[in-house]
Design goal:
Main location: membrane
Family: Belongs to the SecY/SEC61-alpha family.
CATH topology of the largest domain: Preprotein translocase SecY subunit
Membrane topology: Multi-pass membrane protein
CATH class of the largest domain: Mainly Alpha
Radius of gyration: 24 Å
Number of helices: 17
Largest sheet: 2 strands, antiparallel
Number of domains: 2
Strand order of the largest sheet: 1-3
Strand content: under 5%
Keywords: Cell membrane, Membrane, Protein transport, Translocation, Transmembrane, Transmembrane helix, Transport
Protein name: Protein translocase subunit SecY
């Protein structure tokens, strides 16, 4: 392993460690015991899911309680706008335009974070513990101002950490932050399961069945994520002679799951937002809606399946540009056997990608909901969803691929340096 790769891994681990430290920095003026008590009693609904994605930062009401979700929400809005308005979509494709595009996302993140932080701060005013203690220990107006600034600072720090990991470390920074948050909750989940078994609330055979479900889910994810359709490509004799010393790709790889983990993250962010807001309501009708949108409800999982399928098609259409691929192929003198270069090639690639995306979307929808349905049928007293497993496994696979790619790059650079 090269020194450059080791440095990148260490930088990534250092930023993740900083992220975990921030999870223990509370917002000033909060009674943490009251907040933790509240989240312990809401572990199986939307609040529990939000807490899991934040790495238990929410139950401590740390400065990163809102996590990276405001940034993801802003990205969703911008992706939808870019797909709707051609001018914005064109700006995103240009190098200088991409910088402006990302800047707009940052400003949108600030607005969303301020709205959410003010909402959370005002919601805490009505929160009391079993002993009658309030969740806020200082003046309300002062608390709203201080907590809003603190949470905004925390979210901006997370966004900066994510960008630094992407630029200087290994892997996608935003995905790794979510990954670290979920993984950090695993020890407490294991401890809680052991307590349930010891207290007789859960049978040991049920635990074994859950482990089998997790392993089957992981196996299915790895199998599909590594699956791809390789569309053969041929080149003219002249092109092959010109590039005989270079590696020419003789196929176009099209993944079964072109959208990656993004659809599951987008769907979770959209569904968790209204459920989290409604959870603190005192109105009985709004509470009924909140129950329907709870992650432990069938309604939530039906919407999750539909949203994941929708975002899988939507995001795949953005990431896979058949027209650009066909044009580049034509410029390089390549063609798909039996398919005319140009528009026919683009149409063929679009049809192939659409068929693969259909099955990829169904797979993502089932992985996001099926494990919960199975566990629910077994009568397990806690929430277990496939989204967390999907994110963890996908991010792990993506990071390993980037590490391998970096190793190959360093290997070729070394060979070039010695003149081989």
């Amino acid at each position: 392993m090269s020194k450059d790769l080791i440095n990148k891994i260490l930088i990534t681990l250092g930023f993740i460690f900083l992220y975990r430290l921030l999870a223990y920095v509370p917002v000033p003026g909060v009674n943490i015991d009251v907040v933790k008590e509240f989240f312990d009693s809401n572990a199986n609904n939307a609040l529990g899911l939000v807490n899991m994605f934040s790495g238990n930062a929410v139950e401590r009401l740390s400065i990163i309680s809102l996590g990276i979700m405001p940034y993801i929400t802003a990205s969703i809005i911008m992706e939808l706008l870019a797909a709707t308005f051609p001018a914005l979509g064109k700006m995103k494709k240009e190098r200088d335009g991409m910088q402006k595009y990302m800047q707009i996302i940052r400003y949108a993140t600030i607005v969303i974070t301020l709205i959410q932080s003010i909402g959370v701060s005002m919601g805490l005013n009505s929160l009391t513990g079993q002993s009658g203690q309030g969740a806020i220990s200082i003046d309300m107006d002062t608390f709203v101002a201080v907590s809003s600034i603190s949470m905004l600072t925390g979210t901006m720090l997370l966004m900066w950490i994510g960008e630094q990991i992407t630029q200087k470390g290994i892997g996608n920074g935003i995905s790794l932050i979510i990954f670290a948050g979920i993984v950090s909750a695993i020890p407490s989940a294991i401890g809680g399961t052991i307590d349930l078994v010891n207290s007789g609330q859960m049978n040991f055979l049920t635990v074994i069945a859950i482990v089998v479900i997790i392993m089957a889910t992981v196996g299915a994810i790895i199998y599909v994520e590594l699956g791809e359709r390789r569309v053969p490509v041929s080149y003219s004799r002249k092109v092959m002679m010109q590039n005989q010393k270079k590696r020419v790709m003789n196929y176009i790889p099209i993944k079964v799951n072109l959208a990656g983990v993004i659809p599951a993250i987008f769907a979770s962010a959209i569904l968790m937002f209204p459920a989290t807001i409604l959870q603190g309501s005192q109105n009985e009708y709004l509470l009924v809606i909140a129950d329907y949108l709870s992650p432990a409800s069938y309604t939530f999982n039906v919407f999750m399946f539909l949203f994941v399928v929708f975002f899988a098609f939507f995001y795949a259409s953005i990431t896979f540009n058949a027209k650009d691929i066909s044009e580049n192929l034509k410029k390089q003198g390549g063609f798909i056997p039996g398919v005319r270069p140009g528009a026919s090639t683009a149409e063929f690639l679009n049809e192939t990608a659409s068929r693969l995306t259909f099955w990829g979307a169904i797979y993502l929808g089932l992985i996001s909901t099926a494990p919960w349905l199975i566990v629910k049928a077994m009568g397990v007293p806690f929430y277990f969803g496939g989204v967390a497993v999907l994110i963890v496994v996908q991010v792990a696979i993506d990071t390993m691929r980037k590490i391998e790619a970096q190793q190959y790059t360093n290997k070729y650079e070394t060979l070039s340096a010695v003149g081989l």
